[in-house]
Amino acid sequence: MVRGTICRLLVRDVRFPTSLGGHGSDAMHTDPDYSAAYVVLETDAEDGLKGYGLTFTLGKGTEVVVCAVNALAHHVLNKDLRDIVGDFRGFYRQLTSDGQLRWIGPEKGVVHLATAALLNAVWDLWAKQEGKPLWKLLVDMDPRELLSCIDFRYITDVLTEEEAYEILQKGQVGKKERGQMLMHGYPAYTTSCAWLGYSDDTLKQLCTEALKDGWTRFKVKVGADLQDDIRRCRLIRNMIGPEKTLMMDANQRWDVPEAVEWMSKLAEFKPLWIEEPTSPDDILGHAAISEALVPLGIGIATGEQCHNRVIFKQLLQAKALQFLQIDSCRLGSVNENLSVLLMAKKFEIPVCPHAGGVGLCELVQHLIMFDFISISASLENRMCEYVNHLHEHFRYPVVIKKASYMPPKDAGYSTEMKEESVKKHQYPHGEVWKKLLAAQEN
Ligand SMILES: C[C@H](O)[C@@H](O)[C@@H](O)[C@H](O)C(=O)O
Ligand SMILES: [Mg+2]
Predict the structure, then answer these.
(1) 354 lines ligand 1 (CB under 6 A)
(2) Does the complex come out with an ipTM higher than 0.95?
(3) Domain range for residue 340?
(4) Does 199 map to a domain?
């Protein structure tokens, strides 16, 4: 049973110096330090359970997200958890519609990332109090209760609450069997072999290891230099062979005509999709690229920087994407992701979540497992991203077997980091940063 009043909120700036190894680098983000604004919620309940939440950042700017979390804190502090989850739609709306703060959003940018971190902590706490992993909490929830967590404002022109109810009702059929199927895991793909900053030797070595570990789906970063891309894509396609799946990711590097031209040159390597070919805000641009590339057998994937459900709605309406990539830390937590999963189902577009970063795999695995069991009922053309960095800092890290995510068993949203890791990596006074910053000064 849900219990307790939220009496303490702590937010910390935690950064990992991943840029030193070129990990996570792409055509636009050449030196990311995978980081998080990390929130801890405490209640006055005797159980001592805490809620942990985060949003993903790339280093600089995490302090701005921390500020935004503090600016939103009054909406959360001294609230009874029963009141929050009893009217989760109302609570979501209260956070996202703060009459003053919404001016620096609304439902996008820093303030929305902060909302995600806070709400992720609330969901973690709720799932912990119920003694269930988050995916199971969602799967066991009655459809009406699930819908009561969603703010349908701005999407009722494509999905009404009644339509969403019908989708969830249909999803009840075969739920148990799909739950059992998941015991073999949810299919994953790896991005870890081919960051843009990796040398060809590193790429080869990591690809060899990944093949040995049973990976069959690979993503490669492209977009900075065409000749480099041709060489790297040839290398990886030759290594994995013609049957395995290859995806490409340009991280918003191109203009619309440039995207079409560039990808026509990479088509020979048979990519399943090109991800973020252009600005994430350019819905019609994505539609134009999609129209040009689908005949070449290349789909469009996007979502990791889609601000909110409205952008996803329009991408779906405009037939601008073939693969939809939800993100657990950019949208307004589970609440907003639920609405996007339901819209994707209505449009029959497969959801292939964005993960990686720090903690994104830990979180989003819950959402995609719920999606399979209760909404999509399909594994066709579906897979969840995996990146093998930084899991050791989490108390309940992801478990990958045979290139699949195994369903989490521990209660909560897998968001909790090890205290030791947080302390060491807190910016700028943690041990790791003190050393690095001192070395930079000398
Ligand atoms: C800066 C980051 O590593 C991104 O490159 C990464 O999230 C990427 O777009 C991905 O799809 O994994
Ligand atoms: Mg990407």
Answers:
(1) yes
(2) yes
(3) 171-419
(4) yes
Q: Is the pTM of this model over 0.90?
A: yes
CATH of the domain at 207: 3.20.20.120
Output the pLDDT for position 1.
85
Distance 85 CA to ligand 1 centre (A): 32
Cβ of residue 327 lying under 6 Å from some atom of ligand 1: no
Task: Report pLDDT digits (tens) over 293-311.
Answer: 999 999 999 999 999 999 9
Between CA 52 and CA 410 the distance in angstroms is 14
DSSP letter string, 222-245:
--S-HHHHHHHHHHHHHHH-SSSE
Nearest partner of 223 among 160, 266, 182, judged by Cα: 266
Give the pLDDT band of residue 334 (cuts 50, 70, 90).
very high
Residue 363 falls within a domain, yes or no? yes
Looking at the 3D structure of the chain, how many domains does it have? 1
- Non-local (6+) Cβ contacts of 19 within 8 A are 25, 31, 32, 33, 59
Tell me if 66 sits within 8 A of 12, measured CB to CB.
yes
CA 170 to chain CA centroid, nearest Å = 26
- Name the residue at shortest CA distance from atom 2 of ligand 1: 24
Establish if 371 belongs to a structural domain. Answer: yes
Domain presence at residue 129 = no
Average pLDDT (50-74) is: 98
- Site to probe by mutation for ligand 1, drawn from 190, 251, 386 as the one with most ligand atoms within 8 Å of Cβ, is 251
Q: Could you report the per-residue pLDDT of 107-145, keeping only the tens digit for each?
A: 999 999 999 999 999 999 999 999 999 999 999 999 999
CA–centroid distance, residue 48 to ligand 1 (Å): 36
